[in-house]
Amino acid sequence: MKNETLSVLIALLMADVLVLGVMLWMPVMRGEKAFFGVRVSREIYAGEGRRILRRYWLSVLAIFIALEAAGMLTAYYRNNLLYAVAAYAVSVPVAFVLYTAFAREVRPFRLPSEATKFASSLRTRRLSEYTFFALEVLIVILAVAPVILLIYYYPALPERVPVHWGVNGQPDRWARKSLSTVFFVPVLAAYLQSWFLLLKYDLAHAKMTLPAEQAEIYEHYKERLMVASLRMIDWSRGLIGVLLAVVSLLILLTTIEELRPWMKVANTSIWATLGLLLPGLFFSLYRFMKINNALEEATGNANVRRESEEEKWSGGGLFYYNPDDPALMVEKKDGLGYTYNFAGQGIRLRLAFLAGVPLLVLWALLDL
Q1: CB-based burial of residue 136 (10 Å sphere; 0-12 exposed, 13-18 middle, 19+ buried)?
Q2: Could you say which DSSP state residue 173 is in?
Q3: Whose CA is closest to 37, among 113, 106, 92, 94?
Q4: Annotated domain spans of the chain
Q5: Residue 33 pLDDT
Q6: 354: exposed, middle or buried (C-beta count within 10 Å: 0-12, 13-18, 19+)?
Q7: CA nearest to 321, candidates 347, 352, 349
Q8: Higher confidence at residue 11 or residue 188?
């Protein structure tokens, strides 16, 4: 059992290192053009900015090493992975708090926005223009088929069913049969697919900031960035749909004799899906940066900001709150990607939707 726990801890550690790398890279992703979310001069970036950056890096490293070491060592010796998960759950928010705190130090050095006239895109975008019918059909099948199979075999399931499997595909934790233990994963899968679809809808209607000069060039490249973001969402939707559909059926493949020969196929599918998901996300980030660089080469400035919106951003460019802006989703400040306007119409529905995920997890935990 300890060897199995060690294998899972190594996988968790790799995920932690990835998150740590993102947190360390985030302030310098675009150099002085988006240093902790604000544009600064090259002199500040190479001087005072470097001193702030080093202190930030040391602080984040210290937090991650201390919390992750404590959580993983406790998880290993007590043979309970919840300690490692708890350490991860604490370290990530703390790292974001540190990022926000150091962003406040950098904010006084930001360069003022240039006075610019803006244009509005006359094109009305629709979600259907960015949707592949075959992918949507596949996602519906992946969401519905496991539910049908679980309903059909539910009476044949034993009174105690597996709820967790090790890296070798063998069950290592069991619980009494109930609606939550059997149907939690497919319900979660349907819920996440609904969220992804809502996110895709919002992104397709995101606000584009276009300067009056070279407006057509800006719109061309920003449209490409938006399409790349939508493709990343579709890539994630498809792979997560496959992953959760297979995980949903592990209960049947473990306990129903006639279905056990499919267990090896299921394990292979899980690892293959996980192996494709992360490279796909990195490739999407590479595409974002490549398109953004092409826009900058064509125009000399990839990010155009309204001076009236400067004070509406907080948390180092992570959060946008502007009651005067009717847009729900906007381009991130001096960075890549999009974020929500937390004062926008419909944001409460989105936040309530996200709050449903921990409620689903609590529903499942009550029966363990």
Answers
A1: middle
A2: E
A3: 106
A4: 1-111, 115-368
A5: 81
A6: exposed
A7: 347
A8: 188
